[in-house]
Design a protein that fits this description.
The protein starts with a helix and ends with a helix. Strands 1, 2, 3, 4, 5, 6 and 7 form a 7-stranded mixed beta sheet that branches. By secondary structure, it is an alpha/beta fold. The protein folds into 2 domains: 93 residues; 202 residues, Putative neuraminyllactose-binding hemagglutinin homolog like domain (Double Stranded RNA Binding Domain, 2-Layer Sandwich). α3 runs antiparallel to α4, α4 runs antiparallel to α6 and α7 packs antiparallel against α8. β6 and β7 form a beta hairpin. Helix content is 51%, strand content 26%.
């Protein structure tokens, strides 16, 4: 019983609070909000006279506000006056739809349907955006085409599905976009030529990274094979050179170890044992085998007239190190740590193909990040 009473008073408090909020919104002159909220309440409780009174007054004041704004916009020469007027009529129509959802309230308030006004000014607003876009296209500049694309985009939002606007938008984009062609990687200066690295994948991976990580709307990257289909604005040249794979080197460290071991025990009695010792020796040779390699990749960006825009050089360093040991002498002189080192078998460095793959992966990562950062800064 107590729980039911608590729930009742909670709902009553909520209803009182909601009513109070509606009155506050109305008193603050937020008439559109007041109409919408009042219409929602009346759809659940049509006989609420106080709420109906607020709705009727709020609707009247809302109409006065919007119609005053419409007259003000109509008196200007702004290109966007039709769009501003359209938005005002759209707000009025929204109020109409809010009231129409409750038939009993609709009969009392009798709101005005502004859909015909909306359609008229929607058409005018879209045409104004198209006209602005065409004027920007006439500037024949990248910025003009980008701004024109934005205008056509807004015009299409006002007239969804209009094919002529869509065609203009596509034309503006085609002229606004900066097309960057990634030239095939050039290679020179190798010491080793018997590698099997797939340089086609190198170009493809860089191209994919650049397109996936571009934050610019008017920027596209293409391969050299795709360049015939577009108007190139920039070219990116990648020059891979100075691949040096040295021979491995062995650094030897020789040390001698010794240990005294029991060679003979004479037992006189249980608590009397005589031991004879001898010293055993071994010579341990530890070999540290190393190989170093490096490569350079230069990235250059030029415009269509071969003017230099940007360049950078990326270096990849490869170092392979392996340690193993051998010994001569008496095995009994070896410690457990010595034996562990001796268990390491002799190994030789990876082949040149594997080294080149590691170097290429490193310079590719650095180059694609550098190129992407440049274009994200510029655009």
């Amino acid at each position: 019983m107590q729980l039911k009473l608590y729930t009742y008073f909670l709902l009553l408090a909520f209803a009182f609070s909601s009513c109070k909020n509606l009155g506050k919104i109305y008193q603050q002159g937020r008439y559109d909000e007041a109409v919408t909220l009042a219409a929602q309440k009346l759809s659940k409780k049509p006989d609420d006279a106080a709420t109906l009174d607020i709705l009727q007054n709020a609707y009247r004041y809302a109409i006065e506000d919007h119609e005053r704004n419409i007259r003000n916009f109509a008196g200007t020469t702004s290109d966007l006056r039709f769009e501003n007027i359209y938005r005002e009529y759209a707000s009025l129509q929204s109020l109409y739809e809010s009231i129409r959802r409750s038939p009993s309230v609709y009969k009392v308030v009798q709101p005005t349907d502004y859909s015909s006004f909306m359609n008229t000014y929607q058409e005018e607003a879209s045409n104004a955006r198209v006209d602005r876009g065409m004027e920007l296209m006439d500037q024949n500049t990248k910025k003009g085409f980008r701004d024109a694309y934005s205008e056509f985009q807004r015009a299409l939002a006002l007239k969804p599905g209009d094919l002529s606007i869509k065609q203009k938008m596509d034309e503006a984009y085609a002229n606004a976009v900066t097309n960057v062609v990634i030239q095939p990687l050039t290679r020179f200066g190798y010491q080793y030529t018997s590698y099997s690295y797939d340089f086609n994948n190198f170009n493809y991976d860089i191209l994919r990274y650049l397109n996936n990580n571009s934050r610019a709307s008017f920027l596209r990257f293409y391969s050299a094979n795709e360049a015939a289909q577009v108007r190139p604005d920039n070219t990116v040249e990648l020059r891979f050179s100075d691949v040096n794979i040295g021979r491995y080197r062995d650094e030897r460290n020789v040390r001698e170890v010794s240990k005294q071991i029991v060679t003979k025990e004479i037992v006189f009695k249980a608590d009397s044992v005589k031991r004879e010792y001898t010293t055993v020796k071994a010579k341990i040779t530890t070999i540290t085998r190393t190989l170093q390699a490096d490569g350079l990749l230069q990235a250059l960006i030029n415009d269509i007239d071969r003017r230099h825009l940007w360049s950078d050089t990326y270096r990849a360093d490869y170092r392979w190190v392996y340690t193993f040991s051998t010994y001569t002498g008496d095995e009994r002189a070896l410690s457990e740590e010595d034996k562990r080192l001796l268990n390491q078998r002799e190994q030789f460095p990876p082949n040149n193909d594997e080294i080149i793959r590691v170097i290429m992966a490193d310079v590719q990562n650095k180059a694609q990040c550098g190129i992407s950062d440049y274009y994200n800064r510029v655009f």
